[in-house]
């Protein structure tokens, strides 16, 4: 489908998360002298006018770059991203917003290579024209063009990725962010990554995705966690509680395979600020998860073993003033009865999730403890896990901020996802 045009959504909260993370990945890649290849599978137009008809139709930039434009006390990690946006608006008025190709062009070095793909015929023409203007401006400044540094191709980024991996320099940053207009996009992303990791397992892959109510979106991150990458990081940003009509994009995520070790602490420092500035109501929050590749018995359990809850299938449930994680088909103990799952809880710790999750950072800056790996053949299913002790609050599976308790002490379930546009 070619109906999606990112000009209608440029500069929204999803763009802020995506481009902030992209800036940090480029800065990390620039620390080594060896050149790298930047590959953008769904480039879009490259630059967007925020005063255009498309952008002003819904003014989605007011949910993202708008509040940040004049924000104060900005965290240090966020400044390079904001400086880049303001540099393309020298008048001081917020008129233009960069797409991911422009971000890469500004941060990549002269020896690095950019390979940009776009399937929409109108957007690929605008992309080529925008880069022609960039090259013309550099020529006026006395900068010489360096060979075929930037290549723009009208084509399918999923298929084109295959011919570019592995790069000659053995260093690459790949950004994948399709429109997700059709359910098949989720499968295409995973298949493309599976193939890419087989060709170039040490590459850095960044995937943007919407957090929606549809099953494909809720299961997407868990499916990516099972890819054969050495490490992964998953971060989500939610700016408001989903509405009852099921429309609108309220939350999005960035999933990075083989992330730099510097990214997680930078996210911990910056995400609370973004929640504070961009958040619309009490539903605003963020989550950060990290994990490692599954191997051996854990990988077999993920593929063939007990069913692992995904998305909203695992949530806090009210039970006599304490939280309980219940899987479909499990009975809930009545008030006054002893929960059989709590028997022997002190004797053995709960087994880690089959996704290989290492830690989850909550919005208050605290982290869940890193679970110890169980011996093979001794892992317990989710139904054997003990419940929290009396009086303790339930920790959501996503690591989000726990809901405030009601007067009767019962926990409240976390609101579900929402269906909406892409970015």
TrEMBL record:
Pfam family, one: RsmJ
Assembly, per entry: Monomer.
Ranges of compositional bias, category Low complexity: 342-358, 385-403
Function statement: Specifically methylates the adenine in position 2030 of 23S rRNA.
One GO MF term: RNA binding
Ligand binding (S-adenosyl-L-methionine): 19, 42, 100, 118, 156-157, 177
Source organism of the structure: Massilia yuzhufengensis
Protein name, as recorded: Ribosomal RNA large subunit methyltransferase J
Active site: 177 (proton acceptor)
């Amino acid at each position: 489908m070619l109906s999606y045009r990112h000009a209608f959504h440029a500069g929204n909260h999803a763009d802020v998360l995506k481009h902030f993370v992209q800036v940090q990945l480029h800065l990390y890649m620039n620390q080594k002298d060896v050149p790298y290849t930047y590959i953008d599978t769904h480039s879009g137009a490259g630059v967007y006018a925020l005063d255009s008809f498309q952008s002003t139709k819904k003014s989605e930039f007011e949910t993202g770059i708008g509040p940040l434009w004049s924000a104060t006390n900005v965290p240090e990690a966020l400044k390079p991203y904001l400086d880049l946006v303001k540099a393309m608006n020298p008048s001081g008025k917020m008129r233009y917003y960069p797409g991911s190709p422009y971000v890469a062009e500004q941060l990549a070095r002269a020896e690095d290579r950019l390979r940009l793909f776009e399937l929409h015929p109108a957007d690929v023409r605008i992309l080529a024209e925008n880069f022609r203007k960039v090259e013309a401006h550099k020529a006026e400044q006395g900068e010489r063009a360096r060979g075929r540094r930037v290549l723009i191709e009208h084509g399918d980024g999923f298929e084109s990725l295959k011919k570019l991996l592995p790069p000659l320099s053995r260093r690459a940053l790949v950004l994948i962010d399709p429109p997700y207009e059709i359910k098949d996009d989720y499968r295409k992303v995973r298949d493309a990554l599976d193939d890419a990791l087989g060709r170039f397992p040490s590459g850095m892959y960044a995937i943007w995705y919407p957090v929606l109510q549809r099953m494909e979106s809720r299961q997407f991150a868990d499916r990516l966690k099972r890819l054969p990458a050495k490490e992964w990081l998953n971060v989500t940003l939610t700016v408001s509680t989903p509405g009852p009509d099921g429309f609108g994009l309220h939350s999005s995520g960035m999933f990075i395979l083989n992330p730099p070790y510097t990214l997680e602490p930078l996210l911990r420092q910056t995400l609370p600020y973004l929640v504070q500035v961009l958040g619309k109501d009490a539903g605003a929050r963020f989550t950060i998860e990290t994990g490692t590749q599954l191997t051996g018995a854990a990988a077999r359990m993920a593929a063939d073993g007990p069913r692992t809850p995904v998305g909203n299938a695992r949530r806090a449930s009210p039970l006599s003033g304490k939280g309980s994680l219940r899987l479909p088909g499990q009975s809930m103990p009545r008030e006054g009865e002893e929960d059989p799952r709590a028997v022997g809880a002190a004797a053995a710790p709960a087994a880690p999730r089959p996704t290989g999750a290492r830690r989850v950072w909550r919005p208050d800056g605290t982290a869940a403890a890193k679970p110890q790996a169980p011996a093979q053949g001794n892992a317990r299913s989710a139904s054997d896990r003990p419940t929290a002790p009396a009086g303790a609050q339930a920790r959501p599976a996503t690591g989000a901020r726990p809901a405030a308790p009601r007067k009767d002490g019962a926990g409240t379930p976390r609101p579900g996802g929402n269906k909406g546009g892409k970015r």
